[in-house]
Design goal:
Helix content is 83%, strand content 0%. By secondary structure, it is mainly α. It is flat. The termini are far apart. 3% of the residues are buried. This is proton-translocating NAD(P)(+) transhydrogenase.
Length: 95
């Protein structure tokens, strides 16, 4: 029963997140993306805690995959944010 409640909350969070993000002006997407990178860092810490408490091969494998995916997501988010911030820099220093 707890699994169904968790899935229900996850689906509701997805709908709320979609509605909130769709209402944000385009100029605020970069700061919002930086904030989401912070959240992904918390997900990475959570995955590492879960991996540290895992018992057995299957739990350790799932925990390792979670850590790899969370790390890739956080690093990728920071790389994309950096590229977007480069787009806002003026080119006055180049001339």
């Amino acid at each position: 029963m707890e699994g169904f409640i968790a899935i229900y909350i996850f689906i509701l969070a997805g709908f709320v997140g979609y509605e909130v993000i769709s209402k944000v002006p385009v100029i605020l997407h970069t700061p919002l993306m930086s904030g989401s990178n912070f959240v992904h860092g918390i997900v990475l810490v959570g995955a590492m805690v879960v991996l540290g408490q895992a018992e057995g091969f299957s739990e350790q494998l799932v925990g390792f995959i979670a850590v790899v995916l969370a790390a890739g997501n956080a690093v990728g988010g920071y790389v994309v944010t950096e590229r977007m911030l480069e787009m806002f820099k003026s080119s006055k220093g180049d001339k």
